[in-house]
Each structure stands twice: as C-alpha cells, then as structure tokens.
C-alpha cells in the first residue's frame, strides 16, 4: 500500500533527510586518501546521535553499521572496515537516519584525488540520471516515467542499469511501497499523487549490468569488476514540481 503523507509528516521527513545531508556534508571534510571506512562510519554515527537522530541502517535486517561505503566495483551495501580510501577511488556513501520516527535516506558518490576521466564521467552522469528521474516525480505522471528517464540517460551514455536493486517509498519505514526501478516504460505503473514520498536511487555500472553478492551477505559487486556509481535523494511528489528533501548543495560546498 502506498501511503500519502500529511504536511506534518513531510515536515519531519524534511528534517530526517536534512540530517542525512548534514552528515554527508560533515563527512566531506574527512573523506580523503588514507582514511578508513570504519572511521567514516564512527564519525557519522556520532554526528547523527549528537543531532538527535538514530542511525537508520544500523541493525536494519541485521546490517552491522551506520553507513554503506561502496568503493569502485562495489555497487552498494559495502560494510565499513579497516579498508582505506585510495587515490583514484570512487566511493558511494549511503546514509540513513531515523528522526522523530521517520526515515531519511540519501547517497552521494565522492571522488578521491585523481579519478580516471571516464570514471569521473560515470559519476557525473549517474547524478544526472538521478535528477532526470526525480523531475518526473510530479502528480499525474506514472512510476514508469521515472525509471524510463534514468535508463534512457544511462544507456545513451553507454552504461548499464542495475536491475535487482531499486528505490522505494520512505516514511515510518525505510522501505515502503512502491518499489522504484531505475528502468522502465513511460506511462506504466502506479499513477503518482501529491504527498507520496520516494527514495530514488539509480545504481549505474560503467560496464555490464550483472552483479553478485559477496559471502558477507551484504556487499554487492559488479560481475565484470568495473566501477559503479550511486546517488539517492528522498523526494515528495507535488502537483507541478517535485520537492527534494535531501540536499547535495551543502555537500558540494565542502568539496575542494
Ligand atoms: N539506501 C539503501 C536502501 O535504501 C540502503 C539500505 S542499507 C541497509 O536500500 F542496511 F539498511 F539495508
Ligand atoms: Co534507499
């Protein structure tokens, strides 16, 4: 069942999602060659708790940490650990919080030092895919319109769209109906109504779309070993223009 949120609920969801973006903005100052992914996780957990939130992924279906930190060929759900960031890596940092009973969920892919130009393009175009999908989240459009735009841009660039992992409704639960695929056909699926709140999250591979899960039960990697990028915003469907609840501008003003 797809919930329609009240304006009061949306106000709280705005706060939850801004706490996620503020966490990203804080991490931006720490993300550099040599830092371990577990250190980023500790900083994020402390920051979220200091600001009155609860880490949203920690213990979710048994997930062990606050962040998912996914480097290069890790698509999503990379578990923080002793591994350090290296020059030339791309790293997606997916973060969720619970604030006043409502979830925030957003992901940003960062570049470490000198990244290969073709991989920089992948990152830039994946962010564009997200915004092209988001633009379609207005009342009267269809769910398939979102995936169609994402897939079209990704495939025009020569990339591939991960099929097994999708965006989702978000609210009192991290994952609510509907599922939001990053591929699809115009005019198909659920008709969108004002007050629906979605986490839209394209995962785009430089090479082929196939993925596999590691033995840790979480880490998802590309089969061909090529890099993958991931951006996610939580958004409200509105009548004429979508409202984005998370905010990349506060992250990007901290990127040197
Ligand atoms: N943004 C991801 C999602 O919405 C992260 C979930 S990680 C988990 O599915 F650990 F919470 F499962
Ligand atoms: Co999500």
Walkthrough of the structure:
The protein is an alpha+beta fold. It has one domain (7-252): Creatine Amidinohydrolase (Alpha-Beta Complex), CATH 3.90.230. The protein is 28% helix and 24% strand. The chain has 5 helices and 15 strands. Strands 8-7-9-14-15 form a 5-stranded antiparallel sheet. Helix 1 (7-28) crosses helix 2 (37-50) and helix 3 (117-134) packs antiparallel against helix 4. The longest helix has 22 residues, at 7-28. The chain is globular and about 45 Å long. It starts with 6 loop residues before the first helix and ends with a helix. The structure holds 2-amino-4-trifluoromethylsulfanyl-butyric acid (MF3) and cobalt (II) ion (CO). 2-amino-4-trifluoromethylsulfanyl-butyric acid binds at residues 57, 60-61, 63, 68, 77, 94, 96, 105, 107, 168, 199, 201, 232.
Question: Could you give a quick summary of the protein structure above?
Answer:
Helices cover 28% and strands 24% of the residues. The protein has 256 residues and is α+β, with helices and mostly antiparallel strands.
- Helix and strand content put the structural class at alpha+beta
Described by strand count, sense and barrel closure, the largest sheet is:
5 strands, antiparallel
Strand order in the sheet with the most strands: 8-7-9-14-15
Provide the CATH topology.
Answer: Creatine Amidinohydrolase
* Principal-axes shape call: globular
At the first level of CATH, the class is Alpha Beta
Distinct ligands, ions and cofactors found in the model: 2-amino-4-trifluoromethylsulfanyl-butyric acid, cobalt (II) ion
Return residue spans where pLDDT drops below 50 for at least 5 consecutive residues.
none
Percent in helix: 25-40%
Amino-to-carboxy terminus distance: 43 Å
What does the average pLDDT come to? 98
Number of strands: 15
Order of helices and strands: HHEEEEEHHEEEEEEEEEEH
Helical stretch tally: 5
* Proportion of residues in extended strands: 15-25%
What do we call the CATH homologous superfamily? Creatinase/methionine aminopeptidase superfamily
């Amino acid at each position: 069942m797809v919930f329609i949120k009240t304006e009061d609920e949306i106000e709280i969801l705005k706060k939850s999602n801004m706490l996620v973006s503020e966490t990203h903005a804080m991490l931006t100052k720490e993300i550099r060659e040599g830092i371990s992914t577990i250190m980023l996780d500790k900083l994020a957990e402390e920051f979220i708790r200091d600001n009155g939130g609860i880490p949203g992924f920690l213990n979710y279906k048994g997930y062990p940490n606050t962040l998912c930190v996914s480097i290069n060929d890790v698509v999503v759900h990379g578990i923080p650990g002793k591994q350090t960031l290296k020059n030339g890596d791309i790293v997606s940092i997916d973060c969720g919080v619970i604030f006043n009973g409502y979830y925030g969920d957003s992901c940003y892919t960062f570049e470490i030092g000198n990244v290969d130009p073709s991989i920089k393009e992948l990152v830039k175009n994946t962010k564009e895919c997200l915004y092209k999908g988001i633009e379609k989240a207005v009342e009267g459009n269809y769910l398939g319109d979102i995936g169609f735009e994402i897939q079209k841009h990704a495939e025009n660039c020569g990339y591939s769209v991960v099929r097994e992992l999708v965006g989702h409704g978000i609210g009192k639960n991290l994952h609510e109906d509907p599922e939001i695929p990053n591929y699809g056909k115009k005019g198909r699926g659920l008709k969108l109504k004002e007050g629906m709140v979605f986490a839209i999250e394209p995962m785009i591979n430089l090479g082929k779309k196939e993925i596999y899960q590691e033995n840790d039960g979480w880490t998802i990697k590309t089969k061909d070993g090529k890099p993958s990028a991931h951006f996610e915003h939580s958004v409200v469907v509105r009548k004429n223009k979508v409202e984005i609840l998370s905010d990349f501008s506060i992250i990007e003003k901290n990127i040197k």
